[in-house]
Write the structure tokens for this entry.
Amino acid sequence: PKSHATRVALVTGAASGIGKAIATRLAAEGACVVIADLDLEKAEAAAAELGGTDVAIGVQANVTSEAEIQAGIEAALLQFGGLDLVVNNAGLSISKPLLETTEKDWDLQHDVMAKGSFLVSKAAARVLIEQEMGGDIIYISSKNSVFAGPNNIAYSATKADQAHQVRLLAAELGEYGVKVNGINPDGVVRGSGIFAGGWGAKRAAVYGVPEEELGAYYAQRTLLKREVLPENVANAVAVLTGSDLTHTTGLHIPVDAGVAAA
Ligand code: NAD
């Protein structure tokens, strides 16, 4: 498939964790990357780590704001001359039992992940269709989009929403050569702002393990007995958007080291 001589990627929530690992991997493959995040300073710092404005730029973009997303996409066009690949990664996680989950929790979770990724995909698709060069849209959904666990309704429901956006957009954008695929990570403790910011403590309490042992706890319950790192998710993005997997769309790849059947 066609693409710009240097691929141009926009990754949301890329100032931290999985998104930062994805931006790093794509830059290592020669792509120019727009790091879009809530916090401009953190986004610019992450971009600087990748080697400066010839390779990566940081932009402030709250994915719940159509105007800020549009500005991020225009920054990609202006700085790097096009857009080939967009990753819906921005997210947060409110971990509460059903009876404690408020309407505000529900709305925030859905605003950022369901509406936010819809808005980002829509703005990106407009450019990808106009360019007539195909492209890729990736959703960082979650194992929780498929499997149900306790104390997680708002987060998991919105991840399931994202998973269906993948199928719907794969169907709608296929004729333009735009592939849309998802990744379902699980248990990425190390480097994750979500885990560090309270989610880890809550999950550790649910599983009855000390928070500092949570990564090892997740690892021992996987089939491969391996801890999942942000880089492992980034590798899946590289494969799904790379030159080998040109005929795959609407797929979700688990990056969870294997989930036991029971
Ligand atoms: P993280 O907190 O390190 O990264 C999330 C990033 O999203 C942060 O930089 C944050 O500032 C940004 N963000 C939050 N709200 C935003 C908004 N409204 N607009 C723009 N940016 C926003 O956490 P992470 O673990 O790296 O999570 C990244 C994605 O991976 C999330 O969508 C998360 O749900 C998903 N995920 C993570 C895991 C895991 O085990 N860590 C598992 C499954 C899915």
User: Anything to note?
Assistant: The chain has two domains: 8-186+229-255, 190-227.
